[in-house]
Design brief:
By secondary structure, the protein is an alpha/beta fold. 47% of the residues lie in helices and 13% in strands. It has 31 helices and 22 strands. Strand 13 and strand 14 form a beta hairpin.
Length: 811
C-alpha cells in the first residue's frame, strides 16, 4: 500500500461512515498526529477520552471515568442493569446534551481499557441515546496498539471478571463484539527507517523472534557500557523505583547548585494528571528530556528530545542537545485540563479550560520507565529489559529508538523475555486478514447515508410515549378529565401508518442504492427523497400536529399528571425534531446538513423556556370559576395539611362549575360533597361561586331558601357600597374580607365595580408595576379565554388583575 493510504482510508471511514473503528499501528506510525488532525478538521461533533489522567492531558481530552462518571474497579454487567448506586449517577444537563448530540467518541490508548469499562461506556450511551443500538448509535474510534500497554487488572478484580470475559482486553467486551468494528493498521513507520531494524521490531511485536533477528539485535549487547556524559543516552528500565534511584544518584554526583522550579496550578487539575513534578529540581550538567512539543513557532524541541542543562536562571533553563548547533532557552509550558461544554450560541461541543499546570517542560533523563516512554522517540537509549514483567514491554522499549545503532542492550534479549498475550496475537492476525479496502469503504458510506435517511423518516420512537399516555389514561380514567383518548389514538394510528410507509420507502432506497451508488450523489434517490419529505411533512401536520393541539387534560393526582406531562413533552420534542428535518432538508439529502440538524434537534426544546402546560378544562364553559375553585381548594388543603382532593374531588369540581350551586342544600347534591365536607368547606365554596355569578352577570334567583349571603338586587348594591366605604376608610381588601366574613375575590369584585365611575382607580387595586407590565404583555399574547391567558403569564398576576387590565385595554 502507498505510504499514506491507510491514514486516508481511516480518515474516510471516520468522517464519511458510521462504522466503529480500531485504529492501530506500530510505534511511530502517526496515530497521535491523526487524532490531532481529526480534532482540527473533522465535521463531526466529537469527544476525546482516555483511560488515565496523563493520557487524557496528552490527547487533549478527558478521562473515561470523569466523562462517563464511572466507579473505579470492576463493573459487572448486572451491576449496571440493576441500577446500583455506583452506576446510576446523575448527569448534568450539559453532559446529557453532549452525549445526545455527539457523532463520534474517540477513545485514545484503547489498549489500556478493560473490557468491562468499554461495556460500561456502551450502557451509558444507550441510557441517553438509543437503547437498542450498540454505543447508543454513536460512532466510536478506538486508537491504540495492543502490543504496547495492556489494561491493569488486579488478581482480585479478575476473579470477578473472568466469569464474564475471556480476557481483560477491550476486544473481549460484549459491546466491541456487537459493534462489528473495522480494524485499520497504520503500517508506514515514521520513527525508524532501517529495514533490518523494522523487521526485528515486527518479529518481536508478533512474538516470532527468529534466531537470525535475535543474533542481529544482540550485537547491540555491550556489557558494562558507560556512555560519555555528553552523548545523550537515556536508560529505559522496567520499574519506577529503579529509574528514580538512577536519576537521584546521577543528580547527587553533580557538585553544582540546585535550582527548584515550582509548578503553577490554576483551577481544577487533579494530582494524578500532573504531567511533571510539582517541584522540579535541576542542576547545571543534569541530563534532561523535553516532555512536550515546543509551543513556539520555532519548534526547537519535541517530546522525548534529550539534552544537558548548561545554565539555570529563576525563569529559564538553557539546554544543549547533542548534534544541535544552538542552545535552547526553555521557559515554562502550559498543560490544560479541559471539560466539554456546549457553546451557548453555536451549540457546538467546545473544550472549556477548567485548569492549567505550568512548569518547565523538562524531566531528569538519565533513566525513565518503559511505561513513561510510551509515545516518545529517542536517538540513543540503553535498554534493560531483564525485568520485563508485562505484555509488550520489550517491544515498547526497543521501538522507542530511531535506529539500531543508537541502541545499547544491558542484557541479551531472548524470545522468553518477549511476553506477548496469545489473545492479542490471534486478534491481530484475524484483524489483518479482514482489513477493509475501498469497496468496504464505499459500502459503509452508502449504508451510513441510508441509515441517516431512515432516521429522518423513522417514527418508532413516538410509539412508547403515545402508548404510555394511553396506558395511564385507561388505568386511571376516573381521575383524568379532558381530551386524551381520541387525540392519542389518532396519533397512534398515524404513527403505525408512518412506520409501514417508511419501511417500504427504506427498502426501495436500498434497492436503488445497489445500482445508483451513494444516495447523496444519485439524482433518482434525491428525487424520491424530496417527494418523501413533502409527503411526510403534510401527513405529520395533519395527523400529529392537529391532534396534539386538541389534546388536553386535568387531573387531581399529581403523579399521574407528571407522568402524562413527561411523555407529552417527549412527543413534542420528537415532533419538533421531525419538523426541523422536513423543513431543513426540503432541497434534498446532504450528510453534513443532516448532522447539523441532528445536533440542533437536541437543543430545540432546551432553547425555549418551558411555559406551564395549559390544563384544558373540557366540558365546562365556566373556565374561570374552575380556576378560582381550584385555587381555593389548594389554599384549604395547605391550611389543613390535606391532599387537595380530600377537600373536594375533580368530578365535584366539574359539577360545581356546571350546576353553580348557591345553597348548602344544592351543594349537597354535588357528587362527592357529603355533609361533613359541606359543613367544613361549604361557606368558602359558595362564597366563590356567588362572587363569580355576580362578576359575570349570571342571574341569581331571589329566593329566601338561598344561602344566607345571597341578597336581593338592592342589597347587592348596598353590599358593594359597604365594601367601598370600608376601603375609603383606609382598610385593605384582606381586612374588609375578614371583617365582613367574605372572600377576598368577592371584595376585589365589589371595588372593581366602582372603577367606571372613578370612585376607585385601577392602581388602587393592583400595583403600578403589575399594571404597566400587564398593559405591555397582554396585547402580545394570543389566548382563548382568561384561564388560557393566566397560564401564559407569571403566577404573580391574579385573575382579578388580568380582568381589570383587559377591560382597561378594551376601552
Amino acid at each position: 500500500m502507498a505510504v499514506n493510504k491507510q491514514l486516508e482510508l481511516a480518515w474516510e471511514f471516520v468522517n464519511n461512515t458510521n462504522r466503529s473503528i480500531f485504529l492501530t499501528g506500530k510505534a511511530g506510525t502517526g496515530k497521535t498526529t491523526f487524532l490531532h488532525r481529526l480534532k482540527m478538521d473533522s465535521l463531526k461533533r466529537l469527544v476525546v477520552v482516555a483511560p488515565t489522567g496523563v493520557a487524557a492531558i496528552n490527547a487533549k481530552g478527558v478521562t473515561i471515568h470523569s466523562f462517563f462518571q464511572m466507579p473505579f474497579g470492576p463493573i459487572l454487567p448486572d451491576t449496571a442493569l440493576n441500577n446500583s448506586t455506583n452506576f446510576n449517577r446523575k448527569f448534568s444537563k450539559t453532559k446529557i446534551n453532549i452525549i445526545k448530540s455527539m457523532d463520534l467518541l474517540v477513545i485514545d490508548e484503547i489498549s489500556m481499557v478493560r473490557a468491562d469499562l468499554l461495556d460500561s461506556i456502551d450502557r451509558t450511551l444507550r441510557r441517553f441515546r438509543n437503547r437498542d443500538k450498540v454505543f447508543g448509535g454513536v460512532q466510536v474510534l478506538m486508537i491504540g496498539d495492543l502490543q504496547q500497554l495492556s489494561p491493569v487488572i488486579k488478581e482480585n478484580e479478575w476473579e470477578l471478571l473472568k466469569h464474564v470475559y475471556k480476557n481483560g482486553f477491550f476486544f473481549s467486551s460484549k459491546a466491541y463484539q456487537e459493534c462489528h468494528a473495522i480494524t485499520i493498521e497504520l503500517k508506514h513507520i515514521y520513527r525508524q527507517e532501517n529495514p533490518k531494524f523494522i523487521k526485528i521490531l515486527n518479529e518481536i511485536r508478533n512474538n516470532v523472534l527468529s534466531e537470525a533477528a535475535a543474533t542481529e539485535l544482540n550485537k547491540r549487547f555491550i556489557p558494562d557500557f558507560t556512555p560519555e556524559p555528553s552523548a545523550g543516552y537515556i536508560s529505559l528500565t522496567t520499574h519506577n523505583n529503579k529509574a528514580e534511584a538512577t536519576n537521584k544518584a546521577e543528580l547527587d554526583k553533580l557538585k553544582t547548585k540546585v535550582f527548584a522550579y515550582k509548578a503553577t496550578i490554576e483551577g481544577k487539575f487533579p494530582e494524578f494528571s500532573f504531567p511533571n513534578d510539582e517541584a522540579l529540581k535541576l542542576k547545571v550538567g543534569a541530563q534532561v528530556m523535553f516532555i512536550k512539543n515546543d509551543s513556539s513557532p520555532d519548534k526547537r524541541y519535541f517530546n522525548g528530545k534529550i539534552g544537558k542543562v548548561i545554565h539555570l536562571d529563576k525563569d529559564e533553563v538553557t539546554v544543549h542537545c547533542p548534534n544541535d548547533d544552538f542552545n535552547i532557552v526553555t521557559t515554562p509550558e502550559i498543560w490544560e485540563n479541559i471539560n466539554y461544554t456546549v457553546d451557548a450560541e453555536t451549540k457546538a461541543i467546545t473544550e472549556d479550560k477548567i485548569g492549567a499546570f505550568t512548569q518547565m517542560p523538562l524531566r531528569l533523563a538519565w533513566a525513565i520507565t518503559i511505561h513513561k516512554s510510551q509515545g516518545l522517540t529517542f536517538e540513543k537509549a540503553i535498554i534493560d529489559a531483564q525485568g520485563a514483567f508485562a505484555h509488550g514491554q520489550t517491544y515498547v522499549a526497543l521501538s522507542r529508538c530511531k535506529s539500531l545503532e543508537g541502541l545499547v542492550l544491558k542484557s541479551k534479549i531472548s524470545s522468553n523475555q518477549i511476553i506477548s498475550d496469545s489473545h492479542v496475537i490471534s486478534f491481530n492476525k484475524n484483524a489483518e486478514a479482514n482489513e477493509p479496502d475501498q469497496s468496504v469503504l464505499e459500502n459503509s458510506q452508502k449504508m451510513f447515508q441510508l441509515d441517516l435517511i431512515a432516521e429522518v423518516f423513522g417514527f418508532y420512537e413516538f410509539m412508547y410515549p403515545v402508548n404510555r399516555i394511553l396506558d395511564i389514561y385507561y388505568k386511571n380514567r376516573n381521575s383524568i378529565e379532558g381530551k386524551v383518548e381520541l387525540p392519542m389514538l389518532s396519533i397512534k394510528n398515524a404513527i403505525t401508518n408512518f412506520l409501514k410507509v417508511s419501511n417500504g420507502f427504506n427498502a426501495q432506497l436500498k434497492q436503488l442504492a445497489g445500482n445508483e451508488g451513494l444516495p447523496e450523489l444519485s439524482d433518482q434517490i434525491q428525487e424520491r427523497f424530496k417527494k418523501a419529505i413533502t409527503y411526510f411533512k403534510i401527513e405529520t401536520d395533519a395527523n400529529l400536529v392537529v391532534p396534539l393541539k386538541e389534546f388536553g387534560f386535568t387531573t387531581d393526582n399529581k403523579t399521574i399528571g407528571a407522568d402524562i406531562t413527561k411523555n407529552l413533552d417527549t412527543i413534542e420534542e420528537l415532533l419538533e425534531a421531525k419538523l426541523l428535518y422536513f423543513n431543513g432538508l426540503s432541497d434534498g439529502f446532504k450528510t453534513k446538513k443532516l448532522l447539523e440538524l441532528r445536533a440542533k434537534a437536541v437543543f430545540l426544546s432546551k432553547e425555549k423556556p418551558k411555559k406551564p402546560r395549559k390544563a384544558v378544562i373540557d366540558g365546562t364553559t365556566n373556565v374561570e370559576l374552575f380556576e378560582l375553585l381550584r385555587v381555593l381548594r389548594n389554599e384549604i388543603a395547605n391550611e389543613n395539611d390535606l391532599i387537595h382532593y380530600q377537600v373536594f374531588t375533580q368530578k365535584a369540581l366539574y359539577e360545581m362549575c356546571e350546576t353553580l350551586p348557591l345553597t348548602k342544600k344544592e351543594l349537597l347534591q354535588v357528587n362527592g360533597m357529603g355533609k361533613t365536607r359541606v359543613e367544613k368547606y361549604g361557606h368558602a365554596i359558595l362564597e366563590v361561586i356567588k362572587a363569580y355569578c355576580e362578576d359575570n352577570d349570571i342571574e341569581i334567583p331571589n329566593d329566601e331558601t338561598l344561602f344566607e349571603e345571597v341578597k336581593s338586587k338592592k342589597e347587592k348594591v348596598d353590599t358593594k357600597k359597604l365594601s367601598l366605604e370600608l376601603f375609603k376608610s383606609g382598610k385593605s381588601i384582606e381586612e374588609i374580607a375578614n371583617e365582613r366574613d367574605l372572600n377576598e375575590n368577592t371584595i376585589f369584585g365589589h371595588l372593581a365595580s366602582f372603577i367606571p365611575s372613578g370612585e376607585v382607580k385601577i392602581t388602587d387595586l393592583m400595583s403600578k408595576k403589575h399594571y404597566n407590565e400587564l398593559k405591555k404583555m397582554i396585547p402580545s399574547k394570543t389566548f382563548d379565554n382568561l384561564s388560557d391567558l393566566k397560564h401564559q403569564l407569571d403566577e404573580k398576576y391574579s385573575y382579578g388583575e388580568l380582568r381589570l387590565v383587559l377591560e382597561d385595554l378594551s376601552k
